[in-house]
Specification:
Mean pLDDT: 78
Number of helices: 10
Largest sheet: 7 strands, mixed
Strand content: 15-25%
Strand order of the largest sheet: 5-10-9-6-11-13-12
Structural class: alpha+beta
Order of helices and strands: EHEEEHHHHEHEEEEEHEHEEHEEHEE
Helix content: 25-40%
Radius of gyration: 32 Å
Shape: elongated
Length: 373
């Protein structure tokens, strides 16, 4: 099968090698120069030189920096000009040391959007010169066709339901909710012919602040407990959401998860006042003694217990800030914990630091007492 490839007219070093190859094949005595209209037969390249091999529809794609090397009789004799830069020589040698087996895009189980999300644009461009990956503009079109307006993502629940059918271990999961700060701004949406960037709670709750700019994105995420998977199931554009509205969203997410066949064991959130109030509306109680506290609430669909978990890292930061602000707190056994102890320890380490391995004293080596959690 024979297709025709363009000459690399923008790469002078590579173009010179291609021209020398044409002179050698055709036994020309005078120098031959290629133009934009000239083409070279695909039979003059190795199979490993292609990202997309020649096909019946007349399309093919060469890897970058490859050189024609096959003569009509099938004899392979690479020709590399001494005028090549070192970088080009390295790329040409690499392509021969590590031959590439061309495959179709559909033969890979991993979708191209999953590959590009883990790479930068430059890295993706480099990998795309070696591996057959779609153009970034095509990926943008695929993403644009996916309905991802504020609210719950129905396609996510459908995908999770199919995953449960394939693996029963994927059924158990936990719900994580978190609010992420976003810039207050308006953007024109040409498809819907309106501005976006205002508060939007989707179809679950009537939007009572539609003219107020959103300052946070409230994200709902499901995480597998017995299998390694994470899946965002929805997001909402808010500006200081109320605990009542957030409790409604949590209830709706649990109902949709149960309908998809998922079993949600717990709900994890930061220890903010609105989150604590949300859990209290759902049925938890964090007041009184330890025995009087209720850290779970009833699932709206299954009737099982769903446990409320306050993020440990955030709670440690709150405890640190409270100790620094109040000056002292009392533990359950009546012992006093003072912030001045940490300050004295800091001052002590500013004077000297003891190294237990060498029994040596180092001067002026302070430690950081502000824990980066």
């Amino acid at each position: 099968m024979c297709n025709y490839c363009r000459f690399p007219v923008k790469n002078k070093a590579a173009l010179e090698c291609w021209e020398q190859f044409v002179q050698k094949v055709n036994l020309l005595d005078v120098p031959w120069k290629a133009t934009r209209e000239h083409r070279i037969c695909s039979n003059h390249f190795q199979h490993s030189d292609y990202i997309i091999p020649p096909s019946q529809n007349g399309t093919c794609r060469l890897k970058k920096y490859v050189m024609p090397s096959r003569f009509n009789n099938g004899h392979v004799q690479p020709t590399i000009s001494t005028t090549h830069p070192d970088a080009l020589l390295n790329r040409v040698e690499l392509s021969h040391k590590r031959p590439f087996v061309a495959t179709s895009i559909n033969s890979d189980d991993t979708s191209p959007p999953e590959k590009i999300c883990k790479t930068t644009s430059k890295a993706y461009k480099y990998v795309r010169s070696i591996v057959p990956l779609p153009n970034p503009s095509l990926i943008k079109k695929w993403s644009a066709s996916f309905k991802c307006d504020p609210g719950f993502i129905e396609d996510a629940f459908t995908s999770l339901s199919n995953e449960i059918t394939a693996s029963h271990n994927s059924r158990d999961c936990c719900l994580v909710i978190d609010a992420m700060s976003i810039r207050k701004q308006t953007l024109w949406n040409p498809e819907e012919d309106k501005y976006s960037g205002f508060t939007d709670l989707g179809d679950t709750i009537s939007n009572r602040q539609s003219e107020k700019l959103a300052s946070e994105a409230l994200v709902f995420l499901l995480v597998g407990t017995r299998s390694h998977w994470k899946c965002p199931i929805g997001y909402f554009l808010v500006d200081k959401i109320t605990a009542k509205d957030q409790a409604t969203l949590v209830t709706k997410s649990l109902e949709k998860a149960a309908k998809a066949g998922l079993k949600v064991w717990s709900v994890t959130a930061d220890g903010t006042a609105v989150n604590l109030r949300t859990f209290e509306i759902l049925g938890c109680n964090f007041k009184g003694t330890y025995d009087e506290m209720q850290s779970s609430f009833i699932h709206p669909t299954t009737g099982e217990d769903v446990f409320a978990i306050l993020d440990p890292c955030h709670m440690l930061k709150l405890a640190r800030n409270a100790l620094a602000q109040l000056g002292s707190i009392m533990d359950g056994e009546g012992n006093i914990i003072k912030w001045s102890y940490i300050q004295q320890l800091q001052n002590l380490h500013q004077i000297h630091y003891f190294n237990g391995n060498t029994n040596a004293i180092f001067v002026h080596q302070p430690i950081q007492v502000s824990f980066n959690l």
